Here is the input.
Amino acid sequence: MRGTRRPRLCLAGVMMASALLATPVARAAEPPDGHLTDLVNPFIGTQNEGNTFPGAAVPFGMVQLSPDTGHSTGYDHSQDHIRGFSLVHLSGVGCRIGGDLPVLPTTGEVTETDYARYAAGFRHADETASPGYYRVGLDSGIEAELTATERTGVQRYTFPATDHANVLLNAAQALHKPVASSVEILDDRTVRTAITGHGFCRETGPYTVYTVTRFSRPFTAYGTWDGTTVAAGSRAGHGGAYVRFDTTGDRTVEATTALSYVDARGAEVNLRAEGGRPFDAVRERARQAWERRLGAVRVRGGDATLRRTFYSSLYRSFLAPNTGSDADGRYTGWDRRIHRAEGFTYYQNWSLWDTYRTQCQLLALLAPREARDMAISVVRVDEDGGWLPKWGYGPVETNIMTGDPVTPFLTTAYQSGLLKGYEERAYRALRKNADGVPPAGYPGVGREANAEYLANGFAPYIKDRPRTKPGDSDYHEGASVTLEYALSDAMLAQMARSLGHHEDAARYAARSRSYRNVFDPSTGFFRARDASGAFTGPADPAAGVGFHEGTAWQYQWLVPQDIPGMVGLIGGERAANDRLDAFFAYDRLLADPARTAREVWVHGGAYDYYGADKYNPQNEPDLIAPYTYLSTGEPWKTTDVVHAALTLFTDSPTGMTGNDDLGTMSAWHVLSSIGIFPVQPGYGTWGLSTPVFDRVDLTLDRRYWPRGALTVTAPGTSASERYVQAVRANARAHDRTYLTMRELRSLRSLAFTVGPRPSEWGTSPQAAPPVLK
Here is the structure.
């Protein structure tokens, strides 16, 4: 049992860290015009593999219209040619997907059909972006502007005076691998396409998107192409189409493109429902939609840079998942049949291995109505297609990443009160997923190594086992998969117990201790085991064999259901804190936090996952790790580590930490800045650390959060005043390092008192987050 202790920290180290830690102390007022959208920089993360995009979208929109420069996921700030403005992007993904129907304005004759050859040069000095809007001046003299509705992308092109002003619609090229495409010119204003593709890390799918584009005025000429052959006057083709305008008088051409994952009729339905409005009206409606969304969080304190990075991360947190149903409610299910969403919006694009740790909790807090529909959509994936998703794009399973991320995603929704009326339906789907594997004919792998896990208590690492289905294989990452399965079992046990399924709860709770079965006492770390049960691979815990995108050093903290049990395995609390200090390079961190974060933690590029014994803030496996100190009697170190990690978020194209992964890293930034963080993903436990703002006012949906508002205060928080001295919840002293979901739902105010030195707050044995039994 842990005893109360006085914090052990060198005062000189505190003062040096205080001088260097980049937690701003300057104060800034609200934006002069009151527009929070002015604090968002969509270019953050567009360089160094953040893989974000600067284009136009509304919150959770089906269409995310943005320029593609030649980077595998769309836009790279270091490049200087635009190949087209395409309809589909996923913010921060690590593999190519989307980029459907790149459209580009040109002048002169149309002779090239490869968008890499007709790409237009541009300069960043002539480029701007804000939520719902993008503009660029092309070297050709054409100005391009983009905005969006939920299911349409709206373009405005201002040409030079010419009778050869063209718009090229390239159906055959995209970020993914095309399978088939068709293009039809329906009349003198309208072009229709169907594009089938597959991709995303490995060839999965295929899927089809349907588009219809309507121009603001008739075109004077048109043609299509197949391969490299351009046919003037042709109305149908497979490669693409061009339409031409005379801009010697009216130099502006507007176009609205509607998208559907259902059929051509769906694209027409979406165009009728959301099209027909002038560009500026659509742009203003998009800005207002973002203003309302961002306005749910009002911060006071912090300098302009801190506020821009915060609101930019909040913006990116609301870009996904994406609307999948058409305006009439129809959507394509995972059985490839057409279904109708009644009483909810159907969503798609499930980067669950990433988002279950941060983003789904943030959406449950700030966008619960949409988060409920998202959870219902995942349940419908099972009911339509036969199994829960792992990494779903559109209507298909990609099988990217490993473990069982759908369980903590759905149990988060349950613990947040978002599954009312669907509790048993969700539980049945989760139980089936947790206790079996999908049939051979189903495209998904589910818990692929479940048979061995259930029989032996661990998922084996079988290096050369052939993949039975496209995507990643749990057998190739057996050590981390065991930890992920056990985490999911712990969260499902809590849901089962709450619903009265006590035998199931006991069974899953017992399975949640399976993490112990991959602990190697000879190394003191988790380690892969082969099919015979022998530990295998290098003994060096930094090697990463059997761990998905990480090492044993990084995965050792992924036991949020039983931190005391994990601590016992590695030798007790003192040994755990020593290991945490080594992991975070804590002594160096105190001396120079920002440099330690950037040069010690970030030891390579975004995809350098292995060979490291330090925290990797660029990837998901150890996102919760800074909060482990809340369970080991040294909670002030969580603040030190978190605030150092926050320095990695900057107001520049390189200002992301690794891939954003559909808002995962952005949500980490937002929650950690506010001072509350989901330390047990899949269950309602919120860890506490010092906020970076003097005050944060959250406006919450009363249908899901009865109080309707929460104010978090930390007056005077700064680099020199960053340690929690006391916490008051609803004006009552709160001595624990966490809040339960019930407590959070009852809160009106959470007040932090901060000071220059660590205190005894949160150091008692009773202060730590609970063990889930």
Notes: The domain at 36-292 is CATH 2.70.98.10 (Beta-galactosidase; Chain A, domain 5). The longest helix spans residues 478-498. The CA atoms of residues 678 and 686 lie 5 Å apart.
